[in-house]
Automatic annotation (TrEMBL), chain A:
SMART domains listed in its UniProt record: RAB (SM00175), RAN (SM00176), RAS (SM00173), RHO (SM00174)
Stretches with biased composition (Acidic residues): 140-153
Keyword Signal attributed: no
Name this protein carries in UniProt: Ras family-domain-containing protein
Membrane-spanning ranges: none
Alphabetical list of PANTHER family matching this protein: PTHR47978
InterPro entries, alphabetized: P-loop_NTPase, Small_GTP-bd, Small_GTPase
Keywords: Nucleotide-binding
GO molecular function, one term: GTPase activity
Region (Disordered): 134-163, 203-239
Domain of life: Eukaryota
Lineage: Eukaryota, Fungi, Dikarya, Ascomycota, Pezizomycotina
Organism: Calycina marina
Any one Pfam family match given in the protein's UniProt record, by short name: Ras
TrEMBL record, chain B:
Source organism: Calycina marina
Polar residues bias locations: 58-67, 74-92
Family statement drawn from the similarity comment of this UniProt entry: Belongs to the MON1/SAND family.
GO biological process, one term: vesicle-mediated transport
Membrane topology field: Peripheral membrane protein
Ranges where the FUZ/MON1/HPS1 third Longin domain occurs: 535-634
Protein name according to UniProt: Vacuolar fusion protein MON1
Annotated Pfam families: Fuz_longin_1, Fuz_longin_2, Fuz_longin_3
Disordered, as annotated region: 1-109
Role: In complex with CCZ1, is required for multiple vacuole delivery pathways including the cytoplasm to vacuole transport (Cvt), autophagy, pexophagy and endocytosis. The MON1-CCZ1 complex acts at the fusion of vesicles with the vacuole, through its regulation of the SNARE complex during the coordinated priming and docking stages of fusion, and particularly at the stage of tethering/docking.
Record field: compositional bias (Basic and acidic residues): 1-12, 27-44
Recorded GO CC terms: fungal-type vacuole membrane; Mon1-Ccz1 complex; multivesicular body membrane
Subcellular compartments: Endosome, Multivesicular body membrane; Prevacuolar compartment membrane; Vacuole membrane
Domain FUZ/MON1/HPS1 first Longin: 223-345
Length: 239, 645
């Protein structure tokens, strides 16, 4: 990578949705702080965080809304996904009802969010299954659907990879199984989203170094470099 | 905007920063209660036995603004400074309600005996009649330590500072400089399980049959808070899971609704050394069980605060709506997630909190000019949708920006502080937060939105400000929080910009360093304030500002138990100073392991404690010196006026 010239930088609005306690905040905490808390308290309202993600050709600055999964906050969700370019819909792969809830969120996003929104379906708490850490290659080998609960192996998986993956394919979603606890696949999810965002929908922001170097290797006409940073971020989720 | 819909509740309470009123607002007391009280007082026949006491009773009542205003001027002209005139007799009657359980026959007391038609609440007014009647006949009880434990909950002579053995007394008299509560081996029966008070009780496991064992644990807790619907549906219990306490919920519901249906609501009763207090709020029953010798009024204020928390989650409109549609509603689902907030609130009360006892707030001590700069920074950065702006550091208020027409209700602030600094759920997430909440004191019908961002007060704060650290690594004392409250749901980015502006300016004009330094230094000890003072701890509440100040708990009250003992003492002193007919303005209290003093005037309430061998004169002089110190430092200790726009 050419480090001498600053890479073009753009911001991407991302919203996390999913049932309570599936691990949305934990995924964000892992991505942003590379940290994990064993007994994380439920989110109240929503939390706003930012994190940069370095791609070979450009830097993506994620502006993340980590929403509360508890039912009583559900009515506020549209405020957060309305202008989002991407969404992480999370379920807990030890809890089948959380996948049902995730499917509801996907349907709502497809109906109400911006048309080009990139959605990733994420099955979290992979560490609670017995294949955790054994391999990072997921998805191809279908799990036995009969995996019921904490058997002798300590496998708590209740949602098979195959089931979730085929649903994701049908709906055109990115799909990952992750562990916020171990960090498995967490950066991968965000990187995949960053890569999947169509270049056309990227709004440029003026990064610290970027201001001095307006010349880009990217097609400049497609990247809006003029919008001042503040208004760019403000217009997003706020209105 | 809910601005104009503001309920009358708010207008009756003085905010912590309003200077135009002297009335004190009791954190949990709602106006409905107040009105009933006033009505009750009017309806009540005159009190023949002690007319003088009757007058002062209104004076001491924080809930009746009219009488307060009527009476204060005369008091102000003649504040009691006669520290030596000690009226020991009154000590045994710190709170009139005591009369309801000092006689063996009255274990189960419905206090609604005075012909109150509504009867939803009578904190101590009606019960106090009994207190008056017995005043002269029973006051000697308190002189006889042998009678303690006889349901004499309020007697200051055994105010939770449990009697030591003769041997210890001998020992302690040899030491001139003995500190309060030095004898920690002497934890009387009331506090011996305090260290286990906050341990979780496991879930009931029918297979293992652990229920009996769990019930023993459950019963050994010093404090319980239970909330249920009037239809008997459990809503919240601090200890024990539903399977464990279901039976009790049923019993509680039966007892309360029995009295409800007789139009003779139950307010409280005593069993052994345990006091049970009931608050009925619309479709909810709130129930407190305490072995900590708090008064009914104090327990009621705590229950009111829990009720405020429920309203804060739901709003009164939603709560009413739910139960009107379905009286059998299970409230646990709509309240999902509120449990941790209720528990941390409960635990604050159980640990003992000066702030909630006094219904006042503590401020960060900084110079007047420095606060002025901070206030101005807030005002300059203010954006159109801002309703309230607060800077809080180490759990203490640094600056408040508010509209002229609105002061902040201490009960609302207690909820916010509890959520941010005690429950930890917000801080743990990192980042910036956008939290919908109802502030019932401001308006119990609608939601406001609160922007929250934390900044670490530690040295390496630069990068932390950018990327807020997580709760595991930072304690409450280290945190600076910027809270910006708006009625506009979509104003997150507007307020975020305001926050960035504030932080940038505070960094630039040096205020941020001043705040961080003040947080790191922490509270000074009493000796640092007045060198050589015999006082080990004190509380000073400025009534006009609805704020208080106190020294650090260390070195003498560092442990949770020592703190609880200190709080027991303060609760007892507070109760005696706020008894409906407390006619003393100064109370000097001697017990085996401490001496203490409470002094109330129109402008302040002062509580202090010293070692057991401190003479009365030394205590009085020490108190005077501290009060002089507070007066001198007043503009540093308290926010006077604040940033009003
Ligand atoms: N074993 C395991 N536990 C996890 C993982 N991710 C989260 N948890 C735990 O699951 C619980 C809930 O995690 P949160 O991150 O708070 O879940 P959330 O989705 O943000 O919940 P809400 O904020 O209420 O919507 C916490 O106790 C976490 O420690 C994981 O990958 N593995
Ligand atoms: Mg969360």
């Amino acid at each position: 990578m050419a480090d001498s010239t600053p890479k073009p930088s753009s911001s991407v609005k991302l919203v996390l949705l999913g049932e309570a306690a599936v691990g949305k905040s934990s995924l964000v905490l892992r991505f942003v702080n590379n940290d994990f808390q064993e007994n994380k308290e439920p989110t109240i309202g929503a939390a706003f965080l930012t994190q940069k993600c370095n791609l070979p050709t450009r830097t993506i600055k994620f502006e993340i809304w980590d929403t509360a999964g508890q039912e009583r906050f559900a009515s506020l969700a549209p405020m957060y996904y309305r202008n989002a370019q991407s969404a992480l819909v999370v379920y807990d792969l030890t809890k089948p009802t959380s996948l049902i809830k995730a499917k509801h969120w996907v349907a709502e996003l497809q109906r109400q969010a911006s048309p080009g929104i990139v959605i990733a379906l994420v099955g979290n708490k992979l560490d609670l299954t017995n294949e955790a850490g054994a391999s990072n290659s997921l998805g191809d080998d279908a799990e036995s659907d009969a995996a019921d609960g904490e058997d002798v192996d300590g496998d708590a998986r209740k949602v098979s990879t195959a089931e979730a993956q085929s649903y994701a394919e049908e709906e055109g979603l990115l799909f990952f199984e992750t562990s916020a606890k171990l960090g498995t696949n967490v950066t991968e999810v965000f990187t995949a989203i960053a890569n999947a965002i169509p270049e056309t929908s990227l709004k440029g922001i003026r990064g610290p170094g970027a201001a001095a170097a307006p010349a880009r290797t990217e097609d400049p006409s497609r990247v809006n470099l003029t919008g001042p940073r503040d208004s760019a971020s403000k217009e997003g989720c706020a209105c | 905007m809910p601005l104009d819909e503001r309920s009358t509740d708010a207008s009756e309470h003085a905010g912590p920063t309003s200077i135009d009123t002297e009335e004190e607002s009791d954190s949990g007391n709602h106006s409905r209660v107040d009105k009933n009280n006033n009505k009750g007082e009017k309806q009540r026949p005159p009190l023949p036995p002690r007319p003088k006491a009757g007058l002062l009773q209104s004076d001491a009542s924080p809930n009746s603004p009219q009488s307060v205003k009527g009476l204060r001027p005369s008091l102000q002209s003649k504040p009691t400074t006669a520290l030596s005139s000690v009226d020991i007799q009154t000590l045994s009657f710190p709170d009139g309600s005591r009369g309801t359980f000092s006689t063996p026959g009255s274990r189960l007391v419905s206090e609604s005996v005075m012909g109150l038609s509504t009867g939803t609440s009578t904190p101590s007014g009606k019960a106090s009649r009994a207190g008056i009647d017995m005043d002269d006949t029973t006051s000697l009880i308190s002189y006889a330590p042998t009678l303690r434990g006889n349901g004499d909950l309020e007697s200051l002579l055994d105010s939770g500072l449990d009697s030591p053995s003769p041997a210890w007394k001998l020992l302690s008299t040899q030491s001139e400089a003995a500190n309060p509560f030095e004898s920690f081996e002497y934890e009387g029966p009331s506090l011996h399980s305090f260290d286990k008070e906050f341990d979780e009780i496991e879930a009931v496991d029918t297979k293992r049959g652990n229920e009996e064992e769990l019930l023993i644990q459950w019963k050994s807790k010093l404090k319980h808070y239970i909330i249920l619907s009037s239809a008997g549906k459990p809503i919240y219990s601090r200890h024990g899971d539903q399977n464990l306490i279901n039976g009790y919920i049923g019993i509680i519901q039966t007892i309360i609704s029995f009295f409800e249906s007789a139009k003779d609501p139950l307010l409280g009763f005593t069993a052994g050394n345990t006091r049970f207090v009931v608050v009925t709020q619309g479709p909810l029953y709130l129930f407190a069980i305490s072995k900590l010798k708090e008064t009914d009024a104090q327990l009621r204020a705590q229950l009111d605060a829990l009720y405020m928390q429920i309203l804060s989650t739901l709003t009164l409109s939603n709560l009413t709506h739910l139960f009107t549609n379905r009286p059998n509603t299970d409230l646990r689902r709509p309240l999902e997630g509120t449990e941790t907030l209720l528990s941390s609130l409960s635990d604050t009360f159980t640990k003992g909190s000066a702030s909630s006892l006094l219904s006042a707030l503590e401020c960060l001590k900084i110079r007047k000019t420095q606060r002025y700069v901070i206030n101005n920074t807030m005002l300059k950065a203010r954006t159109p949708n801002l309703l309230y702006g607060l800077i809080v550091a180490g759990g203490r208020l640094v600056s408040v920006a508010r509209p002229k027409r609105h002061s902040l209700h201490p009960g609302d602030l207690q909820l916010i502080f509890n959520m941010l600094f005690e429950a930890g759920s917000v801080k743990a997430g990192g980042g910036e937060n956008w939290i919908p909440l109802c502030l019932p004191g401001f308006n119990n019908r609608g939601y406001l939105y609160m922007y929250v961002s934390f900044i670490s007060a530690r040295e390496n704060a630069e990068n932390v400000a950018e990327r807020p650290s997580t709760a595991s690594s930072v304690s409450q004392e280290d945190e600076i929080a910027i809270l910006l409250i708006s009625a506009e749901k979509e104003s997150f980015f507007e307020l975020k910009e305001m926050r960035d502006d504030i932080v940038e300016q505070l960094e630039k004009n040096g205020s941020m360093d001043i705040i961080k330094k003040a947080v790191r230094v922490g509270r000074s000890s009493a000796t640092e304030m007045v060198p050589g003072t015999p006082l080990r701890h004190f509380l000073y509440k400025s009534r006009a500002n609805v704020q208080f100040t106190m020294p650090s708990f260390s070195p003498d009250f560092g442990s949770a138990l020592a703190r609880r003992k200190l709080m027991n003492l303060y609760h007892a002193l507070h109760a005696s100073a706020h008894a409906k007919h407390a006619h003393t303005k100064v109370i000097h209290c001697i017990s085996t392991d401490s001496v203490s003093l409470v002094w109330t005037t129109a402008s302040f309430e002062f509580y202090c404690i010293a070692g057991p061998n401190t003479s009365r004169a030394a205590l009085a002089q020490g108190a005077n010196k501290i009060i002089q110190w507070v007066k001198r430092e007043e503009e540093r200790l308290f926010i006077i006026g604040g940033a009003v726009f």
